[in-house]
Structures are given as C-alpha cells and as structure tokens.
C-alpha cells in the first residue's frame, strides 16, 4: 500500500521563474537545506529519462530517474531496499506574479509502511525544507522588492 506526503507553498513570483529554479536540480544544494549534494552528469535543461544521483543529509544517496517532465515541473522515481519512491514537483500560476508549488513524495513497496513509520517526521521535515528553500530562493532573486508577502500552506497529509 502506497503512502503519500504532500507539501504546498505559495511563492510571490511568476510560475515560470519558480519552475526554472525547481528544474535546475544541480543547484538544489544551494537553496534546499536537506540536500547535501547532487551529481548530475547531464548539462543543459533537465531531460526525460535522465538519471540524477542525490544525497540528502541523514539518508543514503539515491539515483533518481526523470519519468515525466514539462514546463510546470517534473516527476522522478528511485528504488532502494524494498521501497519505490516517486517524487513529483509541480508549479502552477495562482495570480499575477504568484505561483503555487506542490511537492509530493509517494512511497510504495514491501517496506514502504515500515519506512514511513520510522521516517515520517524526517520526510515531512525535508519536504518543508524544500518548499521553504525554494520560496526563499525565488523571492530573494525577485527584482521587485514590493512583491506581496507570501503565505505558506502546510499540507502534511499522508
């Protein structure tokens, strides 16, 4: 039985600007505090079927394969000891110069329930760090200092 975690955050920036930062996975360690390093052999824009090795603090490194990609975000998957993980990263416009980001992590496989039992708190924390880091990165690089305040929406439902 699959377990899904979801984090949503509103960002005071155009959806295209947010997606540009989100799709640049090689740069994630500079704004996503949960990511120790990224090894992306490819250059240029992220590509479908591309593999990226990513290491998060307190977790083993994992190889992610991009399975779906468009201008609004991407989905990638990874498999490790009894758990198949699917990470979805989506951006949608919600108004003039505002976007909503939804980050979803789904764990499936024979050890998914045990993994979530032991790691739910860390999973929620890392999704929150990714959402907040992305929001901060995009908003701080926004040339308009008069941009409206942001409103975070925490959705830690399973």
Automatic annotation (TrEMBL):
Region (Disordered): 137-158
Protein name as catalogued: Polyketide cyclase
Lineage, opening ranks: Bacteria, Bacillati, Actinomycetota, Actinomycetes, Micromonosporales
């Amino acid at each position: 039985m699959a377990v899904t975690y979801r984090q949503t955050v509103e960002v005071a920036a155009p959806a295209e600007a947010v997606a540009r930062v989100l799709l640049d996975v090689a740069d994630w360690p500079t704004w996503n505090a949960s990511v120790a390093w990224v090894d992306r052999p490819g250059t240029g824009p992220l590509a479908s079927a591309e593999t990226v090795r990513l290491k998060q603090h307190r977790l083993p490194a994992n190889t992610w394969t991009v399975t779906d990609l468009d201008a609004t975000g991407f989905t990638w998957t990874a498999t490790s000891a009894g758990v198949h993980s699917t990470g979805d990263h989506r951006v949608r416009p919600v108004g003039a110069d505002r976007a909503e980001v939804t980050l979803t992590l789904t764990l499936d496989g024979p050890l998914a329930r045990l993994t979530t039992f032991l790691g739910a708190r860390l999973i929620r924390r890392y999704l929150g760090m990714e959402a907040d880091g992305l929001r901060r990165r995009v908003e701080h690089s926004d040339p308009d200092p008069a941009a409206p305040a942001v409103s975070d929406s925490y959705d830690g439902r399973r």
